[in-house]
Design brief:
With 308 residues, this protein is α/β, with parallel strands linked by helices. The chain has two domains: 191 residues, Nucleotidyltransferase, domain 5; 47 residues, no CATH class. It is built from 13 helices and eight strands. The strands form two sheets. Strands 1-4-3-2-5-6 form a six-stranded mixed β-sheet, with helices on both faces. Strands 7-8 form a two-stranded parallel ribbon. β7, α12 and β8 form a beta-alpha-beta unit. α4 crosses α9. The N and C termini lie far apart (51 Å). The N terminus is likely disordered.
């Protein structure tokens, strides 16, 4: 599990799953859903499900599982290991949504907000459990948006299964607490072992909690803001914190468009055209001394052409 998490480079999304206990295929089961990392501007969001037979509810409760936010990291890790050891009757699955996936979805031309993404991810995980043969009779969910509307949506999507959507469900239902622990442990491990796709040298990993109001997180965002290409994939570029910094600190560029008359429109606005970052001096292939090529081009040995 740990090795897989540390090896993943998040171009899109990743699903990690446990084995399906045989007893979950023959007995009526309950399933809990929760997420970790909804608010941070850094790192992925992780959705988790945990399921077990109805006959094992008390055993799950006896593990002392609780809302992951009320536990220390060591306590969460210990409880996750207990859940793994109970593999004869406990199963889990995780959907890890990369920062790129989250931001790209939120910035679509057709509105697709974080609540819709969360709902669809939860539905996908429940469907995965059903497709795997888990005999689901009860689903418990920590609400995203209005609880009553979400409950109706899930009940219509999964007829015949009793659905309960409640605020703070992770502190009310042990099976949701277990899902919360799985999701939080996974996110913590991913963030700690993040594999930066970009060549940033020795990366400073002291980025705080990752939440927008954390001073350490703000300082990290400012330090790793590229004036042209923005942020590494670790950052949710759709978050207002990141967008505000890019608007104020990054270079304003003009995306050439025939309708806006390209370079001329950029000149009228006293702005830079995107094509200017590909241009070279009239003397040949040597870059203008005052305009060094970005590492994106030099690392790929890309050069501008004067003629075709």
């Amino acid at each position: 599990f740990t090795a897989v998490l540390l090896a993943v480079r998040f171009y899109a999304l990743c699903r990690l799953v446990s084995e399906i206990p045989e007893v979950c295929k023959t007995e009526d089961c309950c399933l809990g859903i929760d997420e970790a990392g909804r608010g941070p501007v850094l790192g992925p969001m992780v959705y988790g499900i945990c399921f077990c037979p109805l006959s094992k509810k008390e055993e799950l409760k006896d593990m002392k599982v609780a809302d992951s936010k009320t536990l220390t990291e060591a306590e969460r890790e210990n409880l996750f290991e207990k859940l793994v050891e109970a593999k004869s009757y406990v199963g889990w699955a995780l959907q890890i949504l990369s920062p790129n996936t989250i931001s790209t979805c939120m910035l679509r031309r057709t509105k697709y907000n974080l609540n819709a993404l969360s709902h669809d991810t939860a539905i996908d995980l429940v469907q995965y459990a059903l497709d795997s043969g888990v005999q689901l009779k009860e689903i418990y969910v920590d609400t995203v948006g209005p609880a009553d509307k979400y409950e109706v949506k899930l009940s219509q999507r999964f007829p015949g299964i009793q659905v309960t959507v409640r605020p703070k469900a992770d502190s009310l239902f042990p099976v949701v607490s277990a899902a919360s622990i799985c999701a939080k442990v996974a996110r913590d491990r991913v963030v700690k072992g993040w594999n930066f796709a970009e060549d940033l040298g020795e990366v400073d990993t002291d980025y705080g909690s990752g939440y927008p109001n954390d001073p350490k997180t703000k300082a990290w965002l400012l330090k790793y803001l590229d004036p042209v290409f923005g942020y590494p994939q670790f950052v949710r570029f759709s978050w207002s914190t990141a967008q505000t910094l890019m608007d104020s600190k990054a270079v304003n560029v003009h995306w050439d468009d025939d309708e806006e008359d390209g370079e001329k429109a950029a000149q009228r606005q006293n702005n830079k055209s995107m094509l200017s970052y590909f241009s070279v001096s009239s003397g040949g292939n040597n870059q203008n001394a005052t305009h060094q090529a970005h590492r994106f081009f030099t690392e790929r040995r890309l050069k501008s052409l004067n003629t075709l």
